[in-house]
């Protein structure tokens, strides 16, 4: 009898111990490639085509758009990132937040890194 009770208790505890928590992504899906396409002077419509509709658009300030993304990974603290776009007279004037467009210097540095990673054999084929 004791074995049955112990087996039943262990089975119940085992079922409660491992609760599956799915990775959860909420809000706007924003990535660096999208933000790199943003340029000052773009119209609201052009920004909307690149980024999608903003999650938070204030009825009091139509020229400020908020894009918020939340990523929850199982038992870790949620990661929240925000991007704020400011418009003046219907054109993009300022970008603030966790993503910023890459400057020309950053892109140049990345291309140099990529070139350094090409094996010598491939360079000879391309140059030869």
List the helices and strands and how they pair.
Layout: H1 2-17, E1 24-27, H2 32-36, H3 44-51, E2 56-57, E3 64-72, E4 79-88, E5 91-97, H4 104-116, H5 120-127
Write a structural description.
This protein has about 130 residues and is α+β, with helices and mostly antiparallel strands. It has 5 helices and 5 strands. The protein is about 40% helix and about 25% strand. Strands 1, 2, 3, 4 and 5 form a 5-stranded antiparallel sheet that branches. The mean pLDDT is about 80.
Q: Architecture, according to CATH?
A: 2-Layer Sandwich
Helix content: 25-40%
Main beta sheet: 5 strands, antiparallel
Span between termini: 83 Å
Structural class, by secondary structure, is alpha+beta
Number of helices: 5
Envelope shape: rod-shaped
Poorly predicted ranges: none
Order of helices and strands: HEHHEEEEHH
Average pLDDT figure:
79
Q: How many structural units, i.e. domains?
A: 1
Percent range for β-strand residues = 25-35%
CATH class: Alpha Beta
* Total beta strands: 5
Radius of gyration over alpha carbons?
A: 25 Å
Instruction: Tell me the CATH topology.
Output: Beta-lactamase Inhibitory Protein, Chain:B, domain 1
């Amino acid at each position: 009898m004791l074995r049955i009770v112990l087996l039943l208790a262990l089975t119940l505890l085992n079922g409660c111990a491992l609760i599956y928590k799915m990775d959860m992504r909420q809000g706007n899906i924003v990535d660096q490639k999208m933000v790199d396409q943003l340029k000052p002077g773009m119209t609201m419509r052009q920004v909307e085509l690149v980024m999608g509709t903003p999650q938070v658009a204030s009825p009091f300030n139509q020229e400020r758009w908020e894009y918020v993304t939340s990523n929850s990974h199982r038992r870790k603290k949620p990661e929240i990132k925000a991007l704020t776009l400011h418009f003046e007279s219907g054109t993009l004037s300022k970008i603030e937040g966790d993503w910023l467009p890459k400057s020309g210097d950053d892109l140049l540095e990345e291309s140099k890194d990529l070139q350094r990673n090409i094996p010598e054999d491939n360079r000879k084929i391309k140059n030869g």
